[in-house]
Write a structure and sequence with these properties.
Helix content: 40-55%
Strand order of the largest sheet: 3-2-1-4-5
Order of helices and strands: HHHHHHEEEHEHEHHHEEH
Number of strands: 7
Strand content: 5-15%
Structural class: alpha/beta
Number of domains: 4
Number of helices: 12
Distance between the termini: 97 Å
Length: 319
């Protein structure tokens, strides 16, 4: 209050009594000068702070009480600050991310969502589960379980999924060290995958995998007892198969993710197992006949007879 009275007197040229009356402060209190000296306590705090430079005022107060000095912690804090002994804390650097809302996917492999879930085994050792979810089909593409994950381990898991399903267009994830490392960024750039990092503290921007993690937590992790890491891998793999092939998904019309993916694959004709069809409705499971269907281009697709110019006009075969 003394500082407030002094500020009012300085800014408005009030007298001492008028400023005290305005702020309801007794004049005697404003004029009071403490006769107590904190010099001894200040010297003692400086001495302790030099011995323990990373100790704050609370630990220094404990050391003072151990040495037999009965002093109030509020007084220690006041003298500690007046002596300029406050520790400068390094502010944590936060990466700046622009919020990107969830995209409306129309096909598989348009966007994969990645996240980690934590749990523990019987011995108390922590385990982590890397979950990869397709944002369109809601399929769980991987549930990798281990005690720790490096970025190279993450890319190795993704390489296995890419070999089976193809490369995604977008990967959405948080800002964990495994997902922001130079190796992971270079891996995405090398495969021309757009990497979308959500804003720190905004898990709803990765809502598909967060919803999946909630289901896994309720239906698997909270109801299972893992004796060791290998048992955790086995039980979580069984639940992943059940989730993909047996569990009805409400956002998919209560179809399973695997069933929905098959229906979309048949309807839209995408996927690695889809047969190639030419303009004359000739199809082969090997893909484009010009890239390894097993017969020369100078022959007709249906047999061993050489095509004439008239027969080849309506087909895709290039003479």
């Amino acid at each position: 209050m003394k500082a407030a009275v002094g500020q009012v007197r300085q800014e408005y040229a009030f007298s001492e009594r008028r400023a005290c009356r305005l702020l309801t402060v007794a004049v005697s209190s404003y004029r009071y000068q403490s006769r107590r000296s904190d010099e001894g306590l200040r010297l003692r705090l400086v001495e302790l702070a030099r011995e323990k430079p990373r100790f704050g005022y609370r630990r220094l107060h404990v050391l003072l009480r151990r040495s037999g000095e009965d002093v109030n912690h509020k007084r220690v804090h006041r003298v500690y600050r007046e002596a300029g002994l406050s520790i400068r804390r390094k502010k944590r650097k936060h990466c700046v991310r622009t919020g990107q809302p969830l995209r409306a996917c129309t096909a598989a492999n348009q966007e994969w969502a990645l996240d980690f879930v934590h749990d523990a085994v019987e011995s108390g050792r922590a385990i982590r589960v890397l979950s990869v979810v397709d944002a369109y089909t809601r399929e769980c593409l991987a549930l990798e379980v281990d005690t720790s994950f490096a970025s190279r381990r993450v890319t190795r898991v993704l390489e296995g999924i890419v070999a089976e399903r193809g490369t995604p267009q977008v990967i959405r994830c948080d800002n964990g060290p495994e997902l922001t490392s130079r190796h992971f960024l270079a891996w995405c750039i090398d495969r021309k995958i757009e990497l979308v990092h959500i804003q720190p503290g905004r898990p709803m921007q990765n809502g598909h995998v967060e919803s999946f993690n909630g289901r896994m937590r309720e239906e698997c992790l909270n109801v299972s007892w893992f004796g060791n890491l290998f048992e955790a891998r086995e039980k979580i793999a069984v639940w992943r198969k059940e989730y993909n092939e047996e569990r009805p998904h409400s956002s998919l019309g209560y179809r399973t993710p695997a069933e929905f993916a098959r229906e979309m694959c048949d309807e839209k004709g995408y996927g690695k197992g889809t047969a190639w069809k030419s303009k004359n409705n000739f199809s082969t499971p090997f893909g484009n006949p010009a890239k390894g269907a097993g017969f020369p281009l100078s022959h007709s697709p249906g047999g061993d007879v050489v095509c004439t110019a008239e027969q080849a006009k309506g087909s895709d075969v290039v003479l």
